[in-house]
Amino acid sequence: MTDSRSDFTAERRPVVLVPGLSGAASKDFSFLSPMLARRHDVTVVPFDDVDASSTLGDLADRIHVVVERCAQQPAVIGYSLGAVAAVAYAAAHPSGASSLTLVAGWLTPSAKLRGFADVWRVLHAEGSPALPGMAMNALFSADGWDSARPPLISDVSDALTALSATADVAALASAVTVPVLVVGCALDEVATTRQSKLLFGALANARYAEVHSGHAVVHERPAELLNLINAFLTRPALFPAGSLILEERP
Amino acid sequence: MKHVDVAVIGAGFAGIGMGIRLRRRGIRSFLIFERADSLGGTWRDNTYPGVACDVPSHLYSYSFRPNAGWSAFYSPGDEIREYLVASANDEGLGEHLRLGTDVLGLTWDESAAHWLLETSRGKHTAGAVILACGRLTEPRIPDVPGIGNFAGDLFHSSRWDHGLDLRDKSVVVVGSGASAVQIVPRVAAQASRLIVLQRSAPYVIPRAGRPYSAAERGLLARDAEELARLRSQLFWKAEEAFAQRAGNPDSLAMARSLALGHLADQVRDPHTRHRLTPSYEIGCKRVLISSDYYPTFNQDNVMLEPSALAAVEGNTLVAANGARHSADVVVLATGFHAAEQPYARIIRGIDGRLLSEHWAGGMTAHASTVMNGFPNLFVINGPNAGLGHNSAIYMIETQIEYILAALRHWANLDGGVLNVRAQAEGDYIRMIDDMASSTVWMTGGCETWYRDARNGRLSLLWPGFAHEFRALNAEFLPEDFELLPCARPRIRAR
């Protein structure tokens, strides 16, 4: 992938970050946000006060509010449930975002994702000390274990975890027309790699890249993710819709 | 006088890698000039006790020559040198190597449109020249009074005197950089007394090195995909450290805490700990990796003198703070001339202009590789091509690809040689300065060889992620160049 020199010196363009199950960019985008801010104006959609009554549509509305505040069409980057919310947003507002990057997202909640949400709910209700370890085992891959840390219970929102089990955009995907980069994770046993690939299959203007990581790709391989995102933001159409983007081997 | 299409100067990682890639392209008309009698660059010159790489082995090697057999996570120096020798032999570079041949002058001949190389073994001409001279090759000897008259043994770390027995000797190591942290523990184990002269304290983080098991080496030998995956994993993990260099407060705080915690864990005496505590931001100078440097200062025979060398009087070293230490042996672990490369003083481009004149305001090059006024001349590992956080080999390979594309373009021309436009070089430099301005190298409050002392520009390092360097510089863009007239080159396009 190549950038032109002007891309490094060009006017800063807006980027909107949509977090995953933590609901907070400071937790999900602790690396990506400051590094993207070197070349872009970064704004974050807060999900940390989402409650149990919220729907996927509510999350999409929150994205809409932030996008409306941008001076120009932003690129929207969603991670995990944030990726699913970004699809719902783009389906409702086809001309809102300039592009979508969907990291470790899904089309339909897989059985494993629903299982993760169930176990989370039960262990949390019991106050179980096994909860952080269970979450770490599910979210991180064996290959990314060096970066793994047991998530603080406060790092994962109950409401968002419950919502993820029902967040389904299969019926909305055909309304999304903007350029999309789908980033799947080869070792993702939560969203599941297949569900990320189904997003790629369902979104007309999508291209697909894969990172050798578990669901917690923002912690396991943040620099590789940054490379993919920067390349896509710089030239969204470099890889035509339908492309499988080969892994860059250093 | 023999003519070749391409002359490569230097037979270290860059020169050998360039030679391999040229040969694999089917190009045979090239020579590699090396002033020493053997190849290996840094890994030939540096043979001091404990010499080892601080980039993981599977990353500090050519992507096009993966080596499943690395003995350890971090390779010892001689293993890297052997890897380079084997690479050159296996790839058939022998017929191209001219060892023991010092290039004394390199001059652009405008009428013939080629380079004239004056070497210690005769003259050659070349259509294109690639400078693969490295950047840590010329020992920096402190310019202090009396250093030439030291009464005992005195040598630079890259010129180790292996005939010298350090047992029962009083030794002074001058310097506390990347070489010193490897040398000091080994010398401390032998010398009766060791004093380390430290101009400024480095940050040191733990070295998680370990040998690879036979099972791991066997797996990597049998499954190329595992090997490629390991290299990727190491690369992207290393990339994360650039967030510190970019000045991200959270990343800096984590790195600082790691290093200062390592110091607190390993050095007992609070006074010594205080003296080993850096006074600038982490990353501004090279972050060192060692788990046996700090504990050395717990030994009774080791003393830290937190001051620079100011003078030598007989067998006494005088520090800038006035302290005086007698010694039998002095090891100068004082680094290299990096910001001002001596080769720039022997290269004359268009109108006889010296490269050192072009670089009078600090080293610069478009795409970190080509200089206006020096046609068909390429430099690897020169201006803004170094890294403070990832593998130099990745950068070298990126530059090799750029040069191969340039040579291919040149070979396909109807005539002409490539001279990068001044505008392109100027734009690139402005972009570099802009990218560098917020990095810790510019804001961290340290004196570092990464910056040019003449004007403070960050001239050695690439101020971004390594992957950004490749994204920006992998592609050769003909519009950045003007063509100077000459006959059609003889190089064959591949």
Which SSEs are present, and which pair or pack?
The complex is a heterodimer of chains A (250) and B (494).
Chain A: H1 5-9, E1 13-18, H2 25-28, H3 32-36, E2 40-44, H4 56-69, E3 75-79, H5 81-92, E4 99-103, H6 111-126, H7 131-139, H8 158-164, E5 180-185, H9 193-202, E6 206-211, H10 217-220, H11 222-234, E7 244-245
Parallel strand pairs in A: 1-2, 1-3, 3-4, 4-5, 5-6, 6-7
Chain B: E1 2-9, H1 13-24, E2 30-33, H2 42-45, H3 77-90, E3 97-98, E4 103-109, E5 114-119, E6 122-131, E7 153-156, E8 170-174, H4 178-188, E9 193-197, E10 204-205, H5 214-222, H6 224-239, H7 242-245, H8 249-266, H9 270-275, E11 288-289, H10 293-296, E12 302-305, E13 309-313, E14 316-319, E15 324-326, E16 329-332, E17 347-348, H11 355-358, E18 377-379, H12 392-411, E19 417-420, H13 422-436, H14 440-443, H15 466-473, E20 481-484
Parallel strand pairs in B: 1-2, 1-6, 2-3, 4-17, 6-18, 7-16, 8-9, 8-16, 9-12, 10-11
Antiparallel strand pairs in B: 4-5, 5-6, 13-14, 14-15, 19-20
Helix pairs in contact in B: 1-12, 5-6, 12-15
What does this structure look like?
By secondary structure, chain A is of the alpha/beta class. Chain A has a single domain, classed as Alpha/Beta hydrolase fold, catalytic domain (Rossmann fold). Chain A has helices at 5-9, 25-28, 32-36, 56-69, 81-92, 111-126, 131-139, 158-164, 193-202, 217-220, 222-234, and strands at residues 13-18, 40-44, 75-79, 99-103, 180-185, 206-211, 244-245. Chain A has a seven-stranded parallel sheet with strand order 2-1-3-4-5-6-7, sandwiched between helices. In chain A, helix 4 crosses helix 5 (81-92). The radius of gyration of chain A is 17 Å and the shape is globular. Chain A starts with a helix and ends in a 5-residue tail after the last strand. Chain B is α/β, with parallel strands linked by helices and 494 residues long. Chain B has two domains: 2-137 and 337-484, 3-Layer(bba) Sandwich (FAD/NAD(P)-binding domain), CATH 3.50.50; 147-202 and 240-332, FAD/NAD(P)-binding domain (3-Layer(bba) Sandwich). Chain B is 30% helix and 18% strand. Chain B contains 15 helices and 20 strands. Chain B has helices spanning 13-24, 42-45, 77-90, 178-188, 214-222, 224-239, 242-245, 249-266, 270-275, 293-296, 355-358, 392-411, 422-436, 440-443, 466-473; strands at residues 2-9, 30-33, 97-98, 103-109, 114-119, 122-131, 153-156, 170-174, 193-197, 204-205, 288-289, 302-305, 309-313, 316-319, 324-326, 329-332, 347-348, 377-379, 417-420, 481-484. In chain B, strands 1, 2, 3, 4, 5, 6, 17 and 18 form an eight-stranded mixed sheet that branches. A five-stranded parallel sheet of chain B has the order 7-16-8-9-12, covered by helices on one side. In chain B, helix 4 links the parallel strand 8 and strand 9 (193-197). In chain B, helix 1 crosses helix 12 (392-411), helix 5 packs across helix 6 (224-239) and helix 12 packs parallel to helix 15. The longest helix of chain B is centred in the C-terminal third of the chain and has 20 residues, at 392-411. The model of chain B has no long low-confidence stretch (mean pLDDT 95). The chains are: A alpha/beta (250), B alpha/beta (494). The A-B interface holds A 1-5, 8-9, 30-31, 34-35, 38, 143, 146-147, 212, 221-224, 226-227, 230-231, 247-250 and B 59, 63, 228-229, 231-233, 235-237, 239-240, 242-243, 246, 248, 250-251, 394, 427-428, 430-431, 434-435, 438, 465-468, 471-472, 474-475.
